[in-house]
Amino acid sequence: MCYHLRMDLQKYLLERKKLVDTRLERLLPQNGTPPSLIHRAMRYSLMIGGKRIRPVLTLAACEAVGGDWRKALDAACAIELIHTYSLIHDDLPCMDNDDFRRGKPTSHKVFGEAAAVLAGDALLTFSFEIVAASKTIPAVQKPALVSLIARAAGSQGLIGGQVVDMESEGKKVSAKTVEYIHAHKTACLISAAIETGAMIGGAKVKELSSLKRYGRTVGLTFQIADDILDITGTKEKLGKGIGKDVAQKKATYPSVYGIERSRAILEEKTQEAVRSLGPFGAEAAPLREIAVLIARRDR
Amino acid sequence: MCYHLRMDLQKYLLERKKLVDTRLERLLPQNGTPPSLIHRAMRYSLMIGGKRIRPVLTLAACEAVGGDWRKALDAACAIELIHTYSLIHDDLPCMDNDDFRRGKPTSHKVFGEAAAVLAGDALLTFSFEIVAASKTIPAVQKPALVSLIARAAGSQGLIGGQVVDMESEGKKVSAKTVEYIHAHKTACLISAAIETGAMIGGAKVKELSSLKRYGRTVGLTFQIADDILDITGTKEKLGKGIGKDVAQKKATYPSVYGIERSRAILEEKTQEAVRSLGPFGAEAAPLREIAVLIARRDR
Asked: Looking at chain A, which residue has its C-alpha nearest residue B124?
C-alpha cells in the first residue's frame, strides 16, 4: 500500500469490521431457512467480503458525538445490506454486466438472473425491517432513520445516481453530470451511513451538520478514488476487472478532468472532509483517518 | 360479469380507488423531477390502472375497527407501491417475461430492462419512506408498521413465494407447495394490507386476530381466483395473456386440483373469510362483500 496505516487504525478497522460481520451473521436468516435459495443468495453476496466501510463509518460517527456504538450496530448493518443489494442489481446483465465482484463470481453468475434480482430485493426489504425491529435503536428515532435511509437509497438518491450513470454511458458528459452521479450513486448512502450513526449517538444540531458535510465530501472522494483505481489499480487487489469504466465509456472524474487533475481534486476534497471535523476532538480521530485512507487506498 | 355487484359496493370501491389514486398522485415525485426517466417509469407502472384492491382493503380494515381511513391512506399507498414493484420485477425477461400488464406494455418494454429493475427498486424503497414520513400515521405505530410490511414483502413473505414459484415452474408440485406459493406470493401482502389498516385504526387484540385470519384467507382466494381466470378468462378483460400459467407450467390450484375442485375450494375459503368477520357488525360489510367479489370477479 502506498499509504502506511497507523497500526491502531488498521486494528480499529479490523475490529469494527468483525463486529459488523458478527452482527450480520446473526441478523440474516440462517442458511437452510426456507426458501433456501433466496437465503443462500442473500448470504453469498453479503458475506463474500468487503471492507464494511459504510457500517464502520456509522459506528465511528456514533462515537464521534459521544454515543454508544452498540446502539448503532443494527442500523450500520442495514446500510451494508442496502449497499450489497445495489451491487447485486448493478452487476446484472441488463446493468453493468459484471461477472466478478470482490474476486468472486457475481450473484447472477452463481444463482441465475432471477434469483439475483430477488436477492437484491430481499436485502433491500430486510434492511428496513432491521431498523424498524431493532432492540437497540430507540423507537422514537426509528421513523426518522427509516426515512433518512430510504431517501438516500431512493430515486433521488442512490437509484437516481445509477439512472444518470446508465444514461451517461458512452456519452461525453459534463463535470456537473459526473458530480451528480457520484454524489448520488455513492455519496448519498455513505453520507446517510454517517448521519445515521450521528443521530443514534444523539448528535447536537451543529454536530450533525458538520458530520453531514463530512459525509457528503468523503462519499465523493470514495468514488473519485474508485475512478482512479479503475485505471491505476490491479485486478488482484481490486477483485474485479480493471479498465471497465473506460471500456464501458463510463462518466468518471478521470474521463472529465484527466487523471492528474482528478488526483488533485481528491486531495482537496479529502482536506475539506477533515476540516469539516474541526469542531470535534479526539473522539473523531477515526473519521479523520478514514477520510485519508479512503483517498489513498489501493483497493 | 357473473356476479352482479350491489350498486353501493360498486360505488364504494370506485370512491375508494379514487381516494387512493389521488393520494398516490400527490405522493409520487412529479414527472420532470430529475432524473426524469426513473420518475416516469415509477409513475407509468403505478398509474397504469389496477383495481387498488390492497389499499382499499387497508382503508376498509381501518374502518372495520372504528378507525379513521384518512390516517391509513398513506400506508395503503405504500402497500400499492410494493405490489407494483413486485409486478415490474415479476414481468422482467429473466422472471416471467411478460410483455403486457393491465392491457399496457410492461415497464421493461417501455423503458428497458435496467430502468425497470431500478423503477421497481425505487418503488419498494419509497414505500418505506412514505410510511416513515407520513404525517397522518401516529409516530409510535410506525416501527411496527414498517416491520410488518417489510416482513410481508421479504424473503419469507412475498419474495419467498416468488422464489418457490420460480423453482416450481415446469415441475409437478404438491398441493402443499402450491399453497406455500400462494400464501406467500399473494396472501402475505394482502394480509399485511389488512393488518396495517387494522393497526392504524386501533384494533383490539381480538379484532386484529380475526382480521389477520380474514386477510390470509382472502389473500389465498384472490390467487385461486386468479389461477382459474388464467384458464377461463378473456384477454380483453384481464389485460394480459391468457393460459400463460399452463404454457409456463406454473404451479396453480387448477394444475394440482383440477378446475372444478379449485372452484369448490375457492367457495369454501370465501365462506371461511366471511365467517372470520363474525365478531364484526355493519362496519365490516365492505370487507364481507369484497371477499365475495374477489372470488367471483371476472378480471
From this structure: A125
